[in-house]
Amino acid sequence: MRRKICVHVEHYRPNDETDYYDLPDNWDDKTPEERRAELDEMARDALFEAAGSSAFVVEVDENGREIRVLNEDES
Question: In which domain of life is the source organism classified (predicted)?
Answer without folding.
Answer: Bacteria
